[in-house]
Amino acid sequence: MAPKFEGKMLKLGNEYPTAEETGDVLNTINYMIAQLARSYPEGGTLRQAHPKMHGCVEAEFKVPELPEHLRVGLFKEPHTYRAFIRFSNSNTRIRNDEKPDIRGFAIKIIEVPGEKLLAGDHAAQTQDFILMSHEVFIAKTVKEFSKSVILLTLPLGLAKARSFFKNFWSNARVIAGLLRAESKCVQALDIPYWSTTPYQFGAQDKAVKYHVKPENDVPIPAGITTGNDLIRQNMVNVLLEREVSFGFYVQFQEDPYKMPIEDATVKWKSPFVKLATITIKRQEFDTAEMNKLGEDMSFSPWHSLPEHRPLGGLNRARKLVYTALANYRRNKNHVPLKETPMEEKLQQVNTNITTSSKDNGMDQNKNEAIVKQLFYDYAHGNAAGVFAAMSNNIVWTEPGAPGVPFGGIHSGIQEVQKMFGMEQALLQILAPLTPTCFFNKDNMVLVQGHDSAKVLATQKIYSTEWVMAFTLADEKIVNVQVYMDTYAIAEAFRADAPVKETVQDGVASVAS
Length: 512
Hints:
single chain, alpha+beta, Nuclear Transport Factor 2, Chain: A, globular
């Protein structure tokens, strides 16, 4: 008989979420946003992870005719796709390229047909693959990753020391993993990359990890070896002279214990199978246009066909974390995040984790039921039911933007009612607030969802994905924090903005 994992018999391709995941994800989101606010109090806000970009390049992703068992999703038919690749450093601080670091290789393939995983955006035409320059991840679980985020982003000092010793063993593992993962690099076009986390490959019992490795007939010279931006400069010099190629590979999970889904620190030992060739042709990518595109684009493993669904705790966490951080960053930067040069940003979302337990006398199932009832009452026009769920002293916070009249902090039930009334007066609801998943931890309920509406004054339509964090006390909602991008709805309200059939990345609120 095979051994058990937390009382479960492990199966190929299966996930095993823990009850603590939701709280760990919430802690990660709150800390990362606070860290971004400290790092970028004014002006443009970079990514929390992989903020330093070496370059955004255009590429071809060529899928040949494959054996029958490999014809899945993106790889079903022979085809050459257009793609963009963002090369980066992972450290949360912008550092000299001479220092050891983990390098990122994020692929965005465009014009990919088929329904996608993203709730409210099934017609999206992108497929993302996210890889890094080390074979395994630095943290085993979402909890360990959450703790490590705090440790790794704190400045040197007493607080960092306290954080380290508070969770000594898990932090020690993460630090050791980070030291193994970081390495020096002078040429990002000539090193291998791995996904570290697993993904479904068609059938539910099929799971793979991704791998990209250089496949150049002529070796790439190392180039310069000193300078703050030596990796970018070496990429510029190479791509002005020649094209470079990478092979795109998968390795299949063959044993659910030796190749676990829920522990990304374990190296899988199955063989790699080639599925595609990536070609980066000669080009001049170090331009203002391409640099802006690379900063504005969002990459997520959940920009995906269902056949390539992300698996494991770290990928489940990415769904919420990436949505909240990307929306915060877009709101601060006042730019619509574009998926490709031709398309408006196609939204992130979707997950299916549920947890329930009792803690400190608070019934989490009851909290979730209260929030679900609020959404039900809203969808069915029961305003009395919506406001009955709220405390008289509720605080409702939404990010604002120029021209959007209902952003900001709304304190007290009367102010929240005014906000709702204003939204109802200014908008025609096309698709009501539609929650796609609920998570609860202690006295908090996290909700993901989507909606769309028309701005009556301009007749422009927007669609949006959002994350809302509800805090409850004594079976009443006392605080709501909304995470979303407000740029596109500002464009929808702006009378001189071009009219579009759909404006992506709009604002979301409980009355939109």
